[in-house]
């Protein structure tokens, strides 16, 4: 795992350390899947404050940490903002089609349930 060298750097797994079960676990939570769907839709980095999740700040922080530690997102500080980006290239290389399939299924479910 790439470890943090200062308080402003966050530890991320290397591509080789990303495990399928960790990715699937991270994507299994509705709030975390919502974050990934939003990142995928905009195809750019978003700050934590760009997400409006119906949970407490501490729970939001937990969800971002799970996604980062699983290798689904990358987080970096830019000034005072913590920016979040989807690690699509790494995930697509390791597990071709997985992210697209999960996102398509989530979009279909949201339509079926009238959530979008």
TrEMBL record:
Domain HTH arsR-type, first and last residues per copy: 12-106
Pfam families: HTH_20 (PF12840)
InterPro entries xref list: ArsR-like_HTH (IPR011991), HTH_ArsR_DNA-bd_dom (IPR001845), HTH_MetalResp_TranReg (IPR051081), WH-like_DNA-bd_sf (IPR036388), WH_DNA-bd_sf (IPR036390)
This protein's UniProt keywords: DNA-binding, Transcription, Transcription regulation
PROSITE patterns attached to this UniProt entry: HTH_ARSR_2
Keyword match Kinase: no
Superkingdom, natural source: Bacteria
Protein name: Helix-turn-helix transcriptional regulator
Gene source species: Streptomyces sannanensis
